[in-house]
Design brief:
This protein has 2 domains: about 220 residues, Creatine Amidinohydrolase (Alpha-Beta Complex); about 60 residues, Winged helix-like DNA-binding domain superfamily/Winged helix DNA-binding domain (Arc Repressor Mutant, subunit A). It has 6 helices and 15 strands. The protein binds manganese (II) ion (MN) (2 copies).
């Protein structure tokens, strides 16, 4: 890993550490979840970086891929189990992290457990171990009262690419791919009181430009012009200058034409409570030790 890449990964991680702190501070019952997302995204921009994707705010049986709408009305409740997934990049070098909070404390055990599973996983990973060995180890760290979500994975990070190369499952799998010194990876176990699998639900206000196909129609071209500023990274309707009837119709047409992808919310199949923990790791770069960029 060259020095410039390493410095940028570390810089992105430092800002993300502050963003995690902010996320905890603002996650009070009665708060509209749009405020939580915007406070965290605002801190990233105030500290001079750019978001790598909209802050994901996923509650209870939602595992991922919901971000508040421009006219969001959901409010955080005492017993909610809230996953906050945050990404920022410095010159395209990404820090990706997630935490889970539960204001009432009723579900603290599942949160503590997933944090412990992640901490063990971060200790285990080193150059030379395979993704199969890693996944098998992580799965074994999950106590019997919970299930690991089998179809959600960690991933490699690339410059301006959140999901690069092979994925990193948290279960025994058939991947003989070996971690190498200098790999930048996001490790993210999800555990649940449910069956341990997710299915696709409703659209979650998160989009990504897929291509630049010939787009017809004035409103679609205007919307796409604004979308291009996101450089192919995921974005949300909250970040557009306007998202009223005209833009909603243009977005629908861009989605139908395959120019823009709309991410569905991922829900646990049994409606189980889901907890997530995630950190970004530079494998073996500190004299053979890992640097966890997003952990302070
Ligand atoms: Mn993430
Ligand atoms: Mn991730």
């Amino acid at each position: 890993m060259d020095e410039e890449a390493k410095e940028n990964y570390i810089r992105a991680g430092e800002v993300i550490q502050d963003a995690r702190q902010k996320a905890r501070e603002v996650s009070e019952p009665g708060t509209n979840v749009k405020v939580i997302a915007e406070e965290v995204e605002g801190l990233i921009r105030d500290e001079g970086l750019e978001t790598a994707f909209p802050v994901n705010i996923s509650i209870n049986d939602e595992a991922a891929h919901y971000t508040p709408a421009p006219d969001e009305d959901r409010v955080l409740k005492e017993d909610d189990v809230l996953k906050i997934d945050i990404g920022a990049h410095s010159e395209g070098y990404i820090a990706d992290t997630a935490l889970t909070v539960n204001p009432s404390g009723k579900h603290q055990e599942v949160i503590d457990t997933v944090e412990e599973v992640l901490a063990s996983a971060l200790e285990f990973i080193e150059p030379g171990i395979t993704i199969e060995e890693f996944g098998s180890y992580v799965e074994k760290q999950v106590p019997p009262q919970y299930n690991v979500i089998r179809n959600l994975t960690g991933h490699y990070l690339g410059r301006y690419t959140q999901h690069a190369g092979v994925s990193i499952p948290n279960i025994d799998n058939a991947s003989s791919h070996e971690f190498q010194e200098g790999d930048a990876v996001a490790i993210e176990p999800f555990i649940t009181t449910g069956a341990g699998s997710i299915k696709e639900g409703k659209p979650g206000n998160i989009y990504k430009q897929e291509n630049d196909r010939n787009v017809r129609g004035r409103h679609q071209r205007k919307l796409l012009g604004e979308i291009k500023d996101f450089n192919g990274l995921p974005f949300t309707s909250r970040w557009l200058s306007s998202f009223s009837g005209r833009e909603k119709m243009a977005m629908k047409k861009l989605i139908d034409a395959g120019v823009v992808h709309s991410y569905p919310v991922l829900n646990e199949v049994d409606g189980g409570i889901v907890a997530q923990a995630e950190h970004t790791v530079l494998v073996g770069v500190d004299d053979g030790d890992n640097i966890v960029t997003t952990r302070n």
